[in-house]
Amino acid sequence: MEKFEPVIVAFCCNYCAYTAADMAGSKRLCYPPNIKIIRVPCSGKVDAIHIIKALEKGADGVLVAGCLEGDCHFKNGNIEASKKVTYIKNLLDEIGIGGERVEMVLMSAGMGERFAQTAIDITKKIRVLGPNPAKSFTPDKASNDL
Amino acid sequence: MITAERKPMEELIECLRPYHRILLVGCNECVTVCSAGGRKEVGILSSALQMAFMKEGKTLEIREITLERQCDPEYIEELVTDISQAEAVMSMACGCGVQEIAKRFKEKPVFPAVNTSFMGASEQQGVWAERCQGCGDCVLGITGGICPVARCSKQLFNGPCGGSTTGKCEINPDIDCAWQLIWDRMKALGIEENYEKNMPPKDWRTSRGGGPRTIIREDLAK
Ligand code: SF4
Ligand code: SF4
Question: CATH assignment of A8-145?
Answer without folding.
Answer: 3.40.50
